[in-house]
Amino acid sequence: MVGTEILLNVLKSPSLQFYRDQKLLHRYNPVYYVDLAPNKDIFIRHFAGKWEGRFRTNSLGMRGLEEPDSTKPQLACLGDSLVMGFGVSDEDTFCHQLNGIELKGGARQTLNLAVDAYGSLGALRRLQDMAPKLKNLKEVLFLFLETTSLFQKNLELKECYRMTRLMKFEAEIQTLIEILGFSLNFLVLLIPFRL
After folding, report:
1. Could you report the per-residue pLDDT of 20-55, keeping only the tens digit for each?
2. 53, 63, 127, 146: least surrounded by Cβ within 10 Å?
């Protein structure tokens, strides 16, 4: 492991630097194996020049610098690399773009709980881990790309209900779809959250 790190530092090729930077963003998690390391600030450049951007995490390992504010109602964004914003800077993630959205008459602080490389069950485990740290969490926005596999594994939706003690889906889903500009090929769930 140490030898690999030394080799990556010596070679400094664009592709090795890209993978090294990605490695620095992540850390091991015993429950869901990988999550974002806290307090990171890294500029990542794709080795083929396809994109570049600044990637920062707060003290809880969530994408972006903003810390949870318990005085504000919170909306958590949950999903995979698309939701996390892989390939774009912090301010260009859709979760950041939703910050301040009015739901049920109140502005929401959006918090990006997404981590690349998660499936829906990994995302739910992350929610279970992070939710107790968010003192004013009102809704969770789940966004999944592979709806077929999600529906084939109905257990995951049942697990979602069990883990978050959810009662019903909310009507604001259509509003969020319009704001985000997604087609209905995505599964977007806005769910009231109760601990």
Report:
1. 777 778 899 888 788 899 999 998 887 888 878 899
2. 146
- Residue 127: CB atoms within 10 A of its CB come to 20
Question: For residues 101 and 108, is the Cβ–Cβ distance under 8 A?
Answer: yes
Cβ-contact 105, 39 below 8 angstroms:
no
How many structural domains does the chain have?
A: 1
Confidence of residue 171 (pLDDT cuts 50, 70, 90): very low
Cα 94 to the chain's mean position, in Å? 10
Three-class SS state of 73: coil
CA angle 161, 117, 39 (to 5 degrees): 95
Question: How is residue 57 written in tokens?
Answer: 């995490």
Which amino acid belongs to residue 175? T
Residue numbers of the domain that contains 34 = 2-192
Reading the block at residue 181, the tokens are 């500009």
**Phi (first) and psi of residue 33, to 5 degrees:** 70, -40
